[in-house]
Amino acid sequence: MRNKAEVLMHPVRMKILQALMHDKEEGLSTLEMISIIKDVPQATLYRHIQILVDENIIKIVKERKVRSVTEKFYAVNEGAAKLSKEDWTQLTIKQKLNYVSYYQLALLSQYQNYLHSLDEEERLEDLATFSFIDLTLTTDQFKNFENELNNLINKYYNMTDSSKETKTETKTIAINIIPKPEV
């Protein structure tokens, strides 16, 4: 069994997980992932999908026979694609910095793809937003804030649109919480 953080923080595996998070119920086939993750060779994608399956981070949700080949559809095992507090505390400083670096690079890559996908008119109405604030809270206040924030994110993450008539768009929400050292 591999170190979970090392499995999750690989750039190709991060792209696979991100692609799978958009289609939670039906899952995606490898061919569908290839059409989404265009910058990764097919053989590399297959290898990293297998690592994620072996580590129980993703699962096969259905299989479909296409001619003589069985096409597999994959989905994320809920909660398995996250590091637990215990996983995080066992990492070295270097591993934590690597993990955060890959996370930030994945965000940058996604933002670049978003900007390049806009035409000139859409660029004038860019919907990306960024915030940077310091909160001064007691430990209990921070725990309450964190719980409320998690509940809010989960509420919208788990929301399904029952009326297929309404067009939905995927938005990426990225939140970093960095404690300030005491002075």
UniProtKB/TrEMBL annotation:
Coiled coil: none annotated. Residues 3-85 form the HTH arsR-type domain. Gene3D superfamilies: 6.10.140.2180, Winged helix-like DNA-binding domain superfamily/Winged helix DNA-binding domain. SUPFAM superfamilies: Winged helix' DNA-binding domain. Keywords: DNA-binding. The keyword DNA-binding applies. GO terms for molecular function: DNA binding; DNA-binding transcription factor activity. InterPro entries: ArsR-like_HTH, HTH_ArsR_DNA-bd_dom, WH-like_DNA-bd_sf, WH_DNA-bd_sf. It comes from the Bacteria. This is Transcriptional regulator.
